[in-house]
Amino acid sequence: MRPVYIAGTGMTAVAEHWTRTALSLASDAARQALSRSTIPHIDALYLANGSSAPLGLHQNFAPAVAHELGLTGIEAISFESAGAAGGLAIRQAAMAVAAGLADAILVVGVEKVSDFLDEHREESLALTSDTDWESLHGVTLTTQWAMLMRKYMHDYAVGISDFAPFPVNAHANAVANKQALYRFAINADKLKDASMIADPLSLLDSSTIADGAAAVLISATPASDGPAVRLLGSGVASAPVALHDRDDLLDLTAVRQSSQRALAAAGIDANQVQAFDLYDPHGIAAVLAFEAMGYAAKGTGTQLGASNAIRPGGSVPLALSGGCKARGDVFGALGVYQIAELTAQLRQTAPTQVDNCQFALAQSMAGIATTVVTHILARD
Amino acid sequence: MKPNRSVGIVGYGAYVPRYRIAAKEISRVWTDGHGGVPVASKSVPGPDEDVITMSIEAARNAIKRSTIAPQDLTAVWIGSESHPYSVKPSGTIVADALGATPFVSSADFEFACKAGSEALTAGMGIVGSGMGQYVMAIGADTAQGRPGDALEYTAAAGAAALIVGPASDSIAVIEETVSYVTDTPDFFRRADRPYPVHGNRFTGEPAYFTQVRSATHALMQQLGISPGDITHAVFHQPNARFPQAVAKQLGFSTEQVQTGLLANRIGNTYSAAALLGLTAVFDVAQPGDTILMASYGSGAGSDAYVMRVTDAILERRDRATKTLRYVEREYFVDYAVYAKWRDKLVMG
Fold it and tell me: pTM, whole model, 2 decimals?
């Protein structure tokens, strides 16, 4: 297997892009990625998008983006696995390059959701839960995270405020990130007063779905404009969709399996990772992910917040670009944003930087960790 | 836009129903009291009040503050999105009640919340061209909000009447106006529906803020003035936050917008909102003051005006009930009474 490199990245700001189309956002990010690379030929374009089909905006969007970029005729494939779309597109591109089937694949993640009413968006996102037992009855992902948080608080005797360090950290890290949706700090006091979205999840512990596009050029040759960044390993795992089919509601098994597979493929230990970007729309999601990956024992994940371990100087720096909460929740494009952002982190050019970062972990998922994809990136 | 012949406001009048419902009372019913509210309270029309009765009240106040008799009116125009009849003008009833009929032009205007200022601009055309001497332009609404919807907290009732006439007879001379309109469907109500639908956050930046900023910018640019040249600024006020935010974006201070800011106490009076703010400013303005008013209507557009207050204001404004007096006249009702009066109880 050949080594796989990140040869170029591009991002638009995460925002309510009222005056721009999905095509304009996607091609903007793609052109940025291409302009920063010296790769002469692109073999394929992989397009990641989670919301457009359920929202009724478009489907099989890849050919449209390829044509817009002047790549008409190229192999153009759409990945539409909800929130895992971006991570899976990166994984497939890396596999093709590693196998020698392609030399360079452009992966573009895009979401355009602002033009749809809240109820319609929430309903579309809920389609990733179990149709017969969950979404049909009005369950949404937000209410499911809320129920998991309620159970966690009950089982481990922790309070709402114990989750506060996660959104506080996300917002603090986003202040320097010009591409972030919310570039302001919040504090635990402000969180206490925040209105409830789905008790115990408050407005300030809930991410906002927003528009944006990111692009990453996956290549057999490294970029020439800075330190080489490798996609060292990745892993994908799945779990029962309906929460009631899981042995332990608070055990995100697919998170554990995908991260173990990614670390094994990368050939590094879990404790070598110096920067994390997870799917963290709420504090509870990050807490459960860290516990599943073994960075905290069961029931102790909130202590990673209390002890500042998730801060840029801590042992598990999280959401350095602002995470889903403050950078903005870009749903199916998240997996591509993460690779673009962590590439900057490894090149020491990120807005909020961890000192001398060598290894970084990116993780995205569909539903409540029903499909989870984890990538390990490394500076060569 | 500027007429050939200089025009101004020769009389003005306000009306706000005395009834109020607290926004917290609405949130008590729908959200168990949780979450923020966009205003403190909103006005509620009494069971015998509608756009026509409120328009008559406001128009009579405007006549009192003018130098004219109702028969001198060339036109009586009412802008509203809650005309009591779908087909049959409100304007004829109001014109008749005022004593302005039969040789008078009358029609109803509709442009969501800026129907009233649309009538004002049309009035400037009639008077400015010399076709007529005086035009009564009224903005009035008893706005609808679906029970439990975000709009229910603000959809209020009120009326404001402005008489457009020659500059020589005016309490405020209109220097120039700009209309800025685009097809922006942020909020609409189909003809057969009781309540409007809206685009949530789409009603903010791409709609209200873009339109109001664009109209105001263009007007200040055409006149070669800056926010520092304005004494009082009045913006359409769908809630308490939007007008203050747009004022800040445009470079106006809190002091400049305070006098015309009524939404926190009476809610969003739709077609009357910006005009009512203007009447509150007229109640306290001094000769020589410069006033900027920018309306906003969904769909969408904004009309902006710059006016200069004349000496005549000092003698005329005390002839009728002041706007703040109407605002302060509060009788709070609970949600049950409000629901009964506003026909929100569907029986049988």
Answer: 0.86
